Amino acid sequence: MLKSGPITWKISPEPKQDKIIKWHTRTPCKSGISTMSSVAVLTQESFNEHRNGLLPEQISSVGSSGNDDDDVLPTYKEAFPPLPEKAATPEGRQELDNAWTKIRPLKSSIITQVFHVPLEERKYKDINQFGEGDQAKICVDIMQKTGAHLELSMAKDQGLSIMVSGKLDAVMKARKEIVSRLQTQASATVAIPKEHHRFVIGKNGEKLQELELKTATKIQIPRPEDPSNHIKISGTKEGLEKAKHEILLISAEQDKRAVERVNIDKVYHPFITGAYNKFVAEMMQETGARINVPPPSVLKTEIVITGEKEQVAQAVAMIKKIYEEKKKNATTIAVEVKKSQHKYVIGPRGNTLQEILEKTGVSVEIPPPDSSSETVILRGEPDRLGQALTEVYAKANSYTVSSVLAPSWLHRFIIGKKGQNLAKITQQMPKVHIEFTEGEDKITLEGPTKDVQQVQSQIEAIVMDLVNRMDYTEISVDPKFHRHLIGKGGANINRIKDQYKVSVRIPPDNEKSNLIRIEGDPQGVQEAKKELLELASRMENERTKDMIIEQRFHRAIIGQKGEKIKEVRDKFPEVIINFPDPAQKSDIVQLRGPRTEVEKCSKFMQKMVAEMVENSYSVSVPIFKQFHKNIIGKGGANIKKIREETNTKIDLPAENSNSEMIVITGKKANCEAARNRILAIQKELANITEIEVSIPSKLHNSLIGSKGRFVRSIMEECGGVHIHFPTEGSGIDTVTIRGPVEDVEKAKRQLLSVAEEKQTKSHTAELRAKPEYHKFLIGKGGGNIKKVRDSTGARIIFPTADDKDQELITVVGTEEAVREAQKELETLIKSLDNVVEDGMTVDPKHHRYFVARRGQVLRDIADEYGGVMVSFPRTGSQSDKVTLKGAKDCVEAAKKRMLEIIEDLEAQVTMECVIAQKFHRSIMGPKGLRIQQITREHNVQIKFPEREDVQASTAETTAQENGETNGEVKDAADPATPRKCDVIVLSGRKERCEAAVEALKALVPVTIEVEVPFELHRYIIGQKGSGIRKMMDEYEVNIQVPAPELHSDIIAITGLACHLDRAKEGLLERVKELQAEQEDRALRSFKLTITVDPKYHPKIIGRKGAIITQIRNEHDVNIQFPEKNDENQDQITITGYEQKAIAARNAIQAIVDDLEEMISEDITLDSRVHARIIGARGKGIRKIMDEFKVDLKFPQNGAADPNLVTVMGRPEDVDEAIDHLLNLEEEYLADVVENESKQAYMKPRATASSVSAGEEQRSSSKGFVVREAPWTTSTEKAPDMSSSEDFPSFGASVTPKTSPWGPKRF
């Protein structure tokens, strides 16, 4: 249906018809539909194409200027056929087809429709607000919502015209919106039968949506439970009528169909459906109606028949006939069948019931599974019931259920590895089902009676055999030792299994069971039991100690390929050392073994760590991955400079690693300096910002997640920003985020969102414990509470000193985690209630030792022995009674340890060690580490004297030399008496003090002198002191090199006596290396020259230096060619070992000899073939030179003889190359001549003269000429393109005039 309106037509020509121009001028016709007028512009190019399409005689005729041939020219109508103005006659149609059939009509996906809203139906009638207000807003909203384009205009009758453009579905949606929002709405109802409503809605409501779009109305259909059959329609009057018509059409169509519901007793449904639904299918095929019989599982009696009325009536009659017949003739019998046999009567998917129905015509009714009844009812013809009963009993008794007694621990042996034993039985008897129930001492068999009996006898035989030759036992072992019994990778337990041919079941950790079960050969079971109990007993007497060693030192302690830890293990073979997995980020290293050995190993490893801490400080700097290359710099320049200037070791992650951390190692101050420089580089390169977000500290753990996974996922998602949480337990709420501005904002939003979610879903519980129990619950270093937190995921908060309620403990987390943590804490509190109090006698003179240094000794005892509280009497009291309070075992162990300490104190002596004061600082070591180590190792007390003032000491010495002090004459001091400032006092057991004195003396630095030739000093020092620093670090000594102006050969080495010999050997070894290098340098400096004509130099060097590089590498020499300005241009210098220099000279001389044998010949090759011979990028000429072992030289541009080509090489090679070149010339020249002959017939390229000639020719040309043009049939001349009247410019007023083209329309 076409509507009147300003529809624009556009016809685009076919690609091959470029001379037809687009038409887009509108001329309204009488019908109101725009038609097309044509305007054609023919360019010079299209004219040329037109000429090319004509025959030769036509071209000549067009080109001739004689008036006699004008009839050959095309007429204007032939060149520009007009469009039809009205319906064409058959003749006209034929004529039109001839002219326009080549233009293919195009269909646009964009359509345009015009809707008219009369004044009386307009919602917004304010004429003054046209294009403004609510109406305009609604139009904009419709366009945004539907994607269609709307144009509004006002008609003379104040009606609203709306032109909608767009794709079909968009236009239809826009139309619906226009009708509902810009047009007043009317409403109507239409009543159709309730059962027809679903056909109006359609599948998934598609039909209803289609109706609403098509009619631009809103259709409301009552819900199924609503008894009303009225459908309400709202919309425009036109839309209402359309919608009512469509709905009534749907209803009328459905009226032709009928639905009938027949109530038939459920027990007669099988007779209507027949076996396997055979009868009902035949009825449906015969009548054409659809019959729906509810399945047996649905307790409905209603059978629904749908279809044409006649078909439905016929089907209903047939169903009722069957029902009446069966109701009249059928009788029933009830029989008892065991409940367990019902499933065999039913059969898989009810197939057995269908089989009985098909064979006998009798329906078998089985009670439902949830019923306890065993009565089965048979319904059918009396003469068939006997046969059916026989079938039912046969099916019921065809299967039987039996059981075999077998201990549950034997079940897996009966099944066999991967079910092999059982598979043999089931393959023979596939119909028998064998069921093993865990924890029960029987096996259930189910299947055909005969097969079950055979399988039962086989399994009974297997069970009897296993019982006779196998045994089992159970042993009780503490679960904490289970993993040690298993061994690394199951080594221990697998060995026991293989050795004793037994099966050992160790319960998993989550079962928390002590029982280990051993099964197998009786003798093997007993032996395995004995070994496992011995292992468990040994473990109970062992001690396990956890050492806190920072993870960054673990690799250094283990060493490359594990050589360092192997030394430790060899030294302490009875101690098992376990390092945590690197992925766990744990600092705990576990030692396990005999008590004394574990202690020794622990001290040894503490000493190792102390040395590492002293020599290494490490800091990690997070730098965004994209800036690592800038920090490294070109060729590693930046990172090398930072390393050298800060004297640090800087490690960057691998390129394929996701890590962004740069690790800096060295002295603390140096590491900080390097860190600041690296951060400065990053700050320069990127817009890095840092913000702080306040998140309650109680949420930090949950936000970080297990092993930092949660926060790591946020960092990765937000472009790799860095998120830093404050230290746990600090109570600080501030979280720092650093990175690019946009990514930081994104991370901030995510963190706050997750924190809010965690806060709302968090669960809290409270429990009470005495304040003195709190530290026991927390444990040493928070070990106990950390264990609870790790196992449950809950956070446990203890009261601070400022809290009023000191007994309240708060648990925070998910409901399940809180419940688990609360349970564990209550268990710990209960165990703490079992506290005993004991006493012991300690001589008051020893009290001070225990309570000194703020009770450090007592704190150590409390930490080691489960938090035992030791109370000494007040100072000044003469009481010797000491009270110990704690768990019973812990109190006993603490008492024993205190008695050991008292015994040591009783045996304590005081000893003096005289060491000059100037060495004291060296003996103490950095931060007193060395002296602390001696104190720990020898269990002694060491006291250093106060430092003596140097000036006072000097003055006193001078006075003493004269024997006078303050004018008083005194006896001269005994030179053998040591000064107070040199005396170090040691207290402890005698043997320990003696050992400590030896250790102190061993720490006194000693200086030795080593003679090293002065000229080698600078090599020993190395670049920026790197060489001497390396030696000092390696040998742990100080090496003093004399100043250069002294010209001394003596180097002083100062250090511990045990290190000096090794350092001296190392220094002398270095001297030998340097002397060997000096000798080698002298040998390598041999120099000789060879005279070679400069014209041969390029040949010796080779292409890109290939030949000379090969000689240099082969003979390990340096070959120097003369510079351009050198006087001796023929001298080549060779430097290296004498023999190798001579060999290199011989190699060069051999090349020169070969070159001198070469000849040079000039040949004439036509310059037109040079390019072909040379080839693309010289590929052709290189091939010839390689093939014939010659050099070719072609003339340069502007050469006197452009055809002259020079060939150089051996005589025989030159001759072959010349022959080949002349053959190529002959071949290529033929192609050149042929191309030139073709060029003669081709259009020449435009030149300046030809362009001017062409312009002159065009100016005299008449162009494209047609006959009977409008301008030749009237008095007027052709339009003048230079006339402003015929072709006015914009804004100029022109007087209209008539034209042969018809009236002008604008």
Automatic annotation (TrEMBL):
Its main location: cytoplasm. One of its GO terms (biological process) is lipid transport. InterPro entries: KH_dom, KH_dom_type_1, KH_dom_type_1_sf, KH_Vigilin_N. Residues 811-838 form a coiled coil. It is found in: Cytoplasm; Nucleus. CDD domains: KH-I_Vigilin_rpt1, KH-I_Vigilin_rpt10, KH-I_Vigilin_rpt11, KH-I_Vigilin_rpt12, KH-I_Vigilin_rpt13, KH-I_Vigilin_rpt14, KH-I_Vigilin_rpt15, KH-I_Vigilin_rpt2. GO terms for cellular component: cytoplasm; high-density lipoprotein particle; nucleus. GO terms for molecular function: mRNA binding. Keywords: Acetylation, Cholesterol metabolism, Coiled coil, Cytoplasm, HDL, Lipid metabolism, Lipid transport, Nucleus, Phosphoprotein, Repeat, RNA-binding, Steroid metabolism, Sterol metabolism, Transport. The keyword Cytoplasm applies. The keyword Transmembrane helix does not apply. Appears to play a role in cell sterol metabolism. It may function to protect cells from over-accumulation of cholesterol. This is Vigilin. It comes from Scleropages formosus.
